[in-house]
Amino acid sequence: MRHFGIFLLLWLPLWLHAQVEFKASATRSEITQDERLRVDFMLNRAPERFEPPAFDDFYVVMGPLQSSGTSVRIVNGKVTRTEQHTYSYVLAPKRAGNLQIEPATAVVDGQTYHTQPIRIQVFKSSRAGNAAIQNTKPGNRQAVASGGNEDVFLRLELTNRNPYVGQAIGAVYKMYFRKGTRVADMAQPNISEPKGFWAETISDKFEDLGRDTINGQIYRVYALRRMMLIPQHEGKLVITPQRFDVVIIKRVLREWGMIQYYDDESQTLHLSSGRVVVNVKPLPEKGKPVDFSGAVGTFDFLVDAVPTQVQTGRDLNISVKVMGKGNLNMFDLPKPVFPPAWETYDPEHRVKTTPTFSGYRGTVSDVYTVIPQEPGTVKLPSVSFVYFDPYAKEYKRITKSFPPVKVSGAPLNPSPTASTPAAPGNRLNGIAHKGRWRQTGHRAFVLRPAFGRWMWAPFVLFALVWLTVFVLRNRRIDPEKLRNERESRYIRRLLSDARKHTGDKEHFYGLLEKALMTYFKNRLNLPANALNRRSVLEKLHEKNPGNDLIERLQDLWNRIDMARYAPGSDAARQSDLDQIKDLLTQLDKKLKK
To answer: What are the pLDDT digits (tens) for 522-572?
Structure first.
């Protein structure tokens, strides 16, 4: 009976409600600008509503982390029940000085309670060299610097931190989960294009890379994104921290009186990859050929003429092709030299590449259409291609010769033949030997009506000749106009292909990006090795098509970057395609003025 009474004392709802206590505490009152602190808002009753402060002077690195606990005590037969509800935040100061954490608000049983404000003294950073920690924007955590001391952290791994200008490097964003940590939810990564690089995504699939051990802790490693980066200029290029949000579930130990048990607790983490510096080396000047056009990588070079036997007036194709790995399509291909008698047109630039960690892999080529005008066997001069091999650290030259072209048929522009002197005739030819009879009433030709009509004949003839020259001149093929027409056809073909691939967002937005870059290369006369978004925007500001069009272009580029890695519908991609068409139409009207 005695034990039964104790049981009743333990479990009957004879709880005593204490007075509401709501207070705030911080782990430290003095910190430096590169340090973090945790602030806890504690309440001894379950609130109906909790409102955190605005944190005007701090960045919220993590939180809110919510925990609750209940304990029961029996002292001299008296049962005491206590509750504890805690809301925790990890904060980073925005600046140095005497900062304040404002009061929090909670509502319990219809009554409103406030905490006292907390003063935090923040000193300037004393560790100027630790750049990975100094960047105190939201989402940056010391986990990036300290490695495996956190449950979850994000890293950016590069295949090479000391590349040459134009040498491609690989970048992989990896996420590490410590053993025992479960993932509840993950947002799409917001990874922007680093400044100073030509960047292209190789894969954005969430890929399991297995396990890794860091500082004695076992982590599960996942690849978030694989990218190809090609530095555009020398110097120290900074890849700024990229933010990623994840919700994890941890097991925490709780107490209920003398009973201890494990419970699941969710946490929302704002992770950052940290700041990474890439030291880009300039290409060596020693031994640099004068005809070097910026090709960096490992390449092969081919030339060809198809067909090798042709008649005058018929066209043939002369091709110059570069294949391999590197910064393909970021340099100019060598140009063949044609005979003066051949009619030539601007080349059709063909690109077939795939991004890899070593650069674009594939081929780029220029195909020239030419029309021979005279017969004979023509041997075109050989062509050289120069590139820099970053692995051998030297410039290399490949020289190729065209096959001879046999041209048959008659010349299209034959030279006029000399007139044959007249055969000697009778010396008396100049003497009239026939009589001419004249009718009565005959009038001289100048007095006839026909004379007036013939007077106008030279003027009419001159007008006809002038009109003929004017028509022929306007119908003459303009190489610049022909090149623009070919580029326009190529852009229309890219946009048409994009319309067919709205279901494949990566391929779809890759085609849109290529169409935009091809348009700006043609309209702004940008060289291939300077074709990037920064150069395009600088050139557009010089042309001044209007700030509204430039802002629309920037917004469109940002939306393309976000849409590549975020879920979206076919209708949204169709809308992006229509906006690109409208933007290019408006820009074309402005740039042609």
So the answer is: 777 777 666 677 778 887 888 787 778 888 887 787 777 777 666 667 777
Residue with tokens 């609750």: 68
CB 552 within 8 A of CB 583: yes
| H or E element at residue 151 | none
CA-wise closest residue to 524 among 515, 537, 513, 511? 537
> Ramachandran region of residue 544, left (φ > 0), alpha (ψ -120 to 50) or beta?
left
Distance of CA 526 to the CA centre of its chain: 17
In this structure, are residues 173 and 224 in contact, taking their beta carbons and an 8 Å threshold?
Answer: yes
- Band of pLDDT at residue 81, cut at 50, 70 and 90: low
DSSP string for residues in 219-242: EEEEEEEEEEEEE-SSEEEEE---
Q: Which fold has domain 297-408?
A: Immunoglobulin-like (2.60.40)
Enclosing H/E stretch for 189: none
Across 30-52, average pLDDT: 83
Instruction: Decide: 256 and 68 in contact? Cβ < 8 Å.
Output: no
Tell me the CATH class for 479-591.
mainly alpha
* Residue 542 vs residue 355, higher pLDDT: 355
Q: Which residue has the tokens 């922007």?
A: 192
Rounded to two decimals, the pTM is 0.47
Pairing relationship of beta strands 197-203 and 217-231 according to DSSP bridges: antiparallel
* Separation CA 520–CA 533 (nearest Å): 10
What's 1-128's CATH class?
Answer: mainly beta
CA torsion through residues 244, 248, 252, 256, sign = positive
